[in-house]
Structures are given as structure tokens and as C-alpha cells.
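Propose amino acids for all 370 sites.
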């Protein structure tokens, strides 16, 4: 089936449909991972986005029932050079095309994803539309222009859980073994769009986890008597989630806190910093991160379109990690309190796993406080 991708600036690409027919609108971004498309599709942080994979062949190992990151896919649409018609993996339960059709995800293939990536890199991420129904680029570009950007949008309310729940799923057989501490820290995790692999990693560390909605008041969380507070990843503009900022202010100095991705940005806002939108964001599994303490370079997975503004960082926070590509802040810690956060994903699946040990400072701070 014929399909077309049109960007807000009038650029368009004609290709073929795969997945579900129809139309999909969102911000067009590119992801540089060579694998992990199943995790990308089901990552709530991609709410509101059309994801372009820079690796040319996608779908060759199919989709399985273990590696999903949430209860449903969240990407608005999927863009690839070629979706493999052949699935070859003993864990696969269905093809990528069948999975996308099942969940109503519109995709386009057989376009020049290198040219699209270069265009986004040069012009910046922008709104776009995939359509299998309308083929006039001018009409589609106008509709893309009318689509609201991610700036100022609270997408957390669209992806967070409706009610609190206890997470008990054990890590898969492929998880990296962690050091068991001999205690069972109780962690409350705010769900801004949390990935299941984060929860699996905490279980692997011997923790007990309760996931709560993003809007749950801080007083209700403290009534649960947790040993630590975790702030998850999620989609959209961190400045559009002021209720989360106020919650964190209540926890400061009361409980150890750890944040990842959006949680990192919201924690920085709670400490007095500001955030800004990146030109095209960091999406992929090959981001080089410098650990300032050790001078070690970590290769990490990332998925974010906003970052903490270094010119607004308060004296209470110190930078622990920076991105070697553009110098942006990738990690902070409080100078006096057990409060940490990183912009990248130490729980990344399928990888890389250079940063998986970064859960340890959070766990250690909890144990010291017990």
C-alpha cells in the first residue's frame, strides 16, 4: 500500500505502508539504535512522536512477549528503510508488521531514512504526518504545521498509570546479575511513563516496588513509609508538569531520591534549574557520556528531547555526567542530600549496559538511612 511522510516545512518522502493503514501525526525524531525496536515502540517516552530508525533493516527478529516496556505501544508512527518480511528468532511470537497492525500503529518503509535523518539533524525535529489516505504533500504539510509541538504539553497525564500497583515481575533470564544487599528496600516509583525494565532492575537489586500515578500527592506517598523515591522517565516537556515539581520539593531532605530521564529534568526543576528543548534530541543506544568523577566514558541509551540548562543550575547541585557530543548535562547530585539523577538510561535493554551499576548509589543511600 502506498504511503507518504510529510514534514511541517514541506519536505516529503513517498514510500510504502506497513503495519496499520491510516494516518499518524507527531514530532519526527530519529533513533540510532541498531536493535531494540520492540522496546522503542513500547516506551511511553515516545508518546507524541514519529520515530525514524537510522539502522536500515528493522524487524528481522520479530516481536516477543518478554521485551515490551509497557502494556501497549506508544509511538505515534514508525519510519524505517526496510521492514524485514522474514522473522528469524526462537523467541519471536509474531512479526513486527503484525504487531503494529494489531495495535493500530501506522508505518512507512522504503524511504531514504539517511536523507530524512540528515534533514532533521540540520533543521531540527519538527511535526510530521504519515498517511495512507491522502497523498497531496501540501495538504499534509499544512496539517503537520497545525499539530501542536511538544513544548508546553503535559504528556505525562496520558501515559501514567490510573492507580497504584505493586511490581513483582522478576528479571528475565537475560538480565545482568546485581549485588544483593541482604535487605529489602521499599521504593515508591512515580510513573511519568515508566519502563518495565527499570522496575525489573530494582527487583534484581532486591527491592520491593510500588508504582504510583504521577499526580499522587506527596503526602499520600510519605504515608506509605517508603525508604526511597524514584522518578521515572516519560514524554513531553518537563516544565509542563508543575505538580511533579512540587511533589519533589516535599521529598527533598526527607527521603533519598533518584531520577532517570524526565525524572532527572523534573528533579532539576525542583531544585531551581530550568530546562530547554534540544534541536533534535538524543535518541539511541550509542550516546557517549563522561563520568566527571572517574573520567570514564560510558556508552549509553537515551531518549529525550529536553535538557537541563547549565546556566541555571543552582549551587546545591553538582554535575556528575556530561554528553561528549554536545556537552549537555547528563547527571547531577545534591551536594548535601542523598539526591541523584541521570539523563540516560542505566537500565537499558537490549543495551548498552555500561551504566547499569548507577543504581547502586541510590540503593546504598537507602541502606545507610535504614
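Proposal:
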Amino acid at each position: 500500500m502506498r504511503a507518504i511522510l510529510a514534514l511541517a516545512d514541506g519536505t516529503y518522502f513517498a514510500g510504502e505502508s506497513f503495519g496499520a493503514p491510516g494516518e499518524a501525526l507527531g514530532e519526527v525524531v530519529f533513533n540510532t539504535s541498531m536493535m531494540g525496536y520492540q522496546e522503542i515502540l513500547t516506551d511511553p517516552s515516545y508518546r507524541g512522536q514519529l520515530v525514524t530508525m537510522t539502522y536500515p533493516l528493522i524487524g528481522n527478529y520479530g516481536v516477543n512477549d518478554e521485551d515490551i516496556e509497557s502494556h501497549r505501544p506508544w509511538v505515534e508512527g514508525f519510519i524505517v528503510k526496510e521492514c524485514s518480511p522474514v522473522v528469524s528468532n526462537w523467541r519471536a511470537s509474531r512479526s513486527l508488521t503484525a504487531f503494529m497492525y494489531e495495535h493500530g500503529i501506522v508505518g512507512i518503509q522504503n524511504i531514504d531514512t539517511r536523507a530524512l535523518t540528515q534533514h532533521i539533524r540540520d533543521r531540527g525535529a519538527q511535526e510530521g504526518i504519515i498517511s495512507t489516505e491522502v497523498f497531496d504533500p501540501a495538504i499534509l504539510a499544512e496539517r503537520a504545521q497545525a499539530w501542536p509541538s511538544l513544548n508546553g504539553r503535559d504528556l505525562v497525564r496520558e501515559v501514567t498509570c490510573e492507580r497504584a500497583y505493586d511490581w513483582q515481575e522478576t528479571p528475565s533470564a537475560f538480565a545482568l546479575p546485581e549485588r544483593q544487599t541482604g535487605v529489602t528496600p521499599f521504593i515508591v516509583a512515580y510513573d511519568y511513563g515508566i519502563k518495565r525494565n527499570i522496575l525489573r532492575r530494582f527487583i534484581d537489586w532486591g527491592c520491593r516496588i510500588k508504582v504510583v500515578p504521577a499526580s499522587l500527592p506527596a503526602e499520600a506517598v510519605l504515608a506509605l513509609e517508603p525508604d526511597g523515591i524514584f522518578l521515572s522517565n516519560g514524554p513531553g516537556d518537563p516544565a509542563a508538569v508543575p505538580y511533579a515539581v512540587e511533589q519533589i520539593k516535599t521529598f527533598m531532605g526527607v527521603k533519598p531520591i533518584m531520577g532517570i530521564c524526565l525524572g532527572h529534568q523534573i528533579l532539576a526543576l525542583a531544585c531551581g534549574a530550568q530546562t530547554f528543548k534540544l534541536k533534535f534530541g538524543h535518541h539511541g543506544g550509542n550516546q557517549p557520556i563522561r563520568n566527571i568523577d572517574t573520567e570514564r566514558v560510558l556508552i549509553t541509551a537515551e531518549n529525550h528531547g529536553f535538557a537541563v540548562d547549565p546556566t541555571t543550575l543552582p549551587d546545591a547541585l553538582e554535575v556528575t555526567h556530561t554528553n561528549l557530543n554536545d556537552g549537555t548535562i547528563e547527571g547531577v547530585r545534591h551536594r548535601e542530600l542523598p539526591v541523584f539523577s541521570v539523563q540516560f538510561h542505566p537500565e537499558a535493554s537490549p543495551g548498552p549496559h555500561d551504566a547499569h551499576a548507577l543504581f547502586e548509589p541510590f540503593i546504598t543511600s537507602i541502606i545507610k538511612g535504614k
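The first strand starts at residue 2 and ends at 7. Residues 156-369 form a domain with the Rossmann fold fold (CATH 3.40.50.880).
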